[in-house]
User: Fold this.
Amino acid sequence: MNKPFSKNYVTTPIYYVNDKPHIGHAYSTIAADIIARYKRLKEEVVYFVTGTDEHGQKVQKTAQANHMDTQNFVDNLSASFKGLVNENGILNVTNNDFIRTTETRHKEFAQFMWTQIQHDIYKDKYSGWYSIKDEAFYSEDEYKKGLAPKDVVWMEEESYFFALSKYAKPLLEFYKKTPRFIVPQSRYNEVIRFIREGLTDLSISRSTFSWGVKVPNDESHVMYVWLDALTNYLSVLSSPNKDLLEEYWNNADNIVHVIGKDILRFHAIYWPAFLMSANMKLPHQVVAHGWWTRDGQKMSKSIGNVIDPVKVIKEYGCDYLRYFLFSEVPFGQDGDFRQESFAQRVNAELANNIGNLMQRALKLLETNFDLQISKSCKNTLYSNKILNSYIEYMDDYKFDKALSKIIQFGHSLNQYFDLQQPWVMAKDETQKDQLYQVLYNILDNIRILAILLYPFIPESIEKIFKTLNISLDKIQLNFISQTLYDSMYLNQIESYDPIFPRIQR
Ligand code: MSP
Assistant:
């Protein structure tokens, strides 16, 4: 395990406010929350942030197309992203702050950042391809090779440039020294290839529209939206004073940026180069996840097949969505969302495997022992091997593997239950002690399994803990070794309801 109290800074990408949130945004945010909750489960300290990316041509154009004042437009959409997170947000995530790039604290810091990299900035004219959808520049070569998106337009305008090319070598050296900087490994190779193909200097200002952070000392330019946006990871720590910046950036043991694979280049190349130029500490890891399709098709507004996370959560609850997204595909790979697989997985793995077992054990405890846990018994089913492989998988972002380990453990509890046949023991007064031992064994192991599942399905796990009369403070890896009997603050269960209702298909 990591040293206790090690300090982590975990971020999500900040979301463009040109449309309401969809399942892909929810995925990035939940992934970061799982990491944050897992680290807290190990009693590490975590600062976790998310927010909205509100400047740039894409946002401005969409506001115009909607005949809305740009500020009004971004205020509305930013609020719908905020509604997913913060306290009581429907994704049930534990972010400590939410940054908007239109906030003064952000704009001031972005301008400060510009002054820190000023020595690498020069003015010239940009001519090349630009994708408004991606807010990204593409070279003639990329265009010819078909590597640029379809929406690119030819652009020629006066621009400030950042001397990115001079960072090619330092970046390669940095990656070499930090082999776990880009996760998964396959993405690492993609970044190296991109640099080896030749890094050109980067245009970092725009002068033909105005929706952005003004360039210091030149009001006719706004900062390139990616330089503006990436700076959020620091600006959110910079206000009201610089304490958080000191604590969670400069002195952090672990800085993790969670992103989607589409924005790797910006995080793994541009961002460390800007930080090197500003002579600042670099993050420890950029973790890139895959993309979701729906029924085998890319999700898009024009097809009308975008999954709205709010709808799914209203229908099935947040935990089922969280569970499905992270058990269905290995983190880092693409996944396909099918209603059928969603229902099947949740029913089999949560409702039948864990929920049903807990109900059966509690029912027997009720009829035979008045729901009392009167003494401790030996836990004969759990071994530390489970925890060790869980930690190994979780530290490596192999969430699907960690989950399947837990589910396997659940299966072995079911096997034990079926083999022992406690419902038969219940008919024989002389086997009462044995019956108690079986039920205790099951419930103690459900407690353990619940602790391990907590980062994924926190709401349900809290319900399990409340049912078992265990304080929520005991949802910690360190408490696994305590017994059920000692964990409970009252050795009497009052009532119990099904934790994992089945999805009706
Ligand atoms: N604003 C930039 C990020 C700036 S970070 C300094 C941006 N925003 S975004 O709203 O377009 O995308 C945010 C995240 O959503 C990305 O990580 C992206 O990968 C993720 N997803 C968007 N659609 C997705 C899927 N269909 N599937 C999974 N995630 C996808 O990029």
